[in-house]
Structures are given as structure tokens and as C-alpha cells.
């Protein structure tokens, strides 16, 4: 029983130390995305989706899918390949916070 309590406590501590996504870093990284997806994620072109206000988990998963090749797009796939996991989390946090 003692082992279970210790394991649970360590799990809670590990979750608490996980680094949260950084919206400011996401905004800085977004500069290269704005040409297609618009300022603050609001696209002016029907050819490119608006990303403002989308769910962060959805955005991050989409970027990971482009990077891995699960999803393919001639513009997004090369862009995603240059992103780290932290970059993707930061971009998703920034975009999901936009109205």
C-alpha cells in the first residue's frame, strides 16, 4: 500500500513539473506562418484556413501529423519538419488563445 501511495505522489509531482506551452514563443515562431494563415491566425484567403481560436490539442496534433508524414501538404509538410515538439506546443498555445 505504501508503494502505491509513493508512486501516486511521484506521478503528481511529475505532472506538476511538466513545462507549459509558451504563447509568447509561439507568437514569435508564428511570424513565418502569417503569410498564409494571416495575422494572429485569421486568414484573409479561402485557400488557407484560419487557425485562431482552434483547440490547442487539435493544432498540435495536426502539426505532428504533417511532420511525421501522416498528413501531407506541399506547403505544410516542409514547414512542420523544421519544428520541434516545443515549437508545435507553443504555436498551438498561441493560436488557440487568439479570438
Please give a structural write-up.
Helix content is 58%, strand content 0%. Mean pLDDT is 87; it is low at 9-18. It starts with a helix and ends with a helix. It is built from six helices and no strands. Helix 2 packs across helix 6. The chain is globular, with a radius of gyration of 17 Å. It has a single domain (21-96), classed as Cytochrome Bc1 Complex, Chain D, domain 2. It has 99 residues and is mostly helical.
Structure, briefly:
With 99 residues, this protein is mostly helical. It has a single domain (21-96), classed as Cytochrome c-like domain (Cytochrome Bc1 Complex, Chain D, domain 2, Orthogonal Bundle).
What descriptors fit this protein?
99 residues; globular; Cytochrome Bc1 Complex, Chain D, domain 2; 6 helices; mainly alpha
The CATH homologous superfamily name equals Cytochrome c-like domain
Give me the CATH architecture, please: Orthogonal Bundle
Question: Helix fraction?
Answer: 55-70%
The low-confidence runs, each spanning 5 or more residues with pLDDT under 50, are: 9-18
Which whole number gives the mean pLDDT? 87
Could you tell me the number of beta strands? 0
Write the H/E string, N to C: HHHHHH
Q: Give the structural class.
A: mainly alpha
Alpha plus pi helix count: 6
The CATH topology assignment is: Cytochrome Bc1 Complex, Chain D, domain 2
**Gyration radius from CA atoms, angstroms:** 17 Å
C-alpha end-to-end distance: 48 Å
Report on the biggest sheet.
none
Shape: globular
Number of folding domains?
1
Which CATH first-tier class would you pick? Mainly Alpha
Percent range for β-strand residues: under 5%
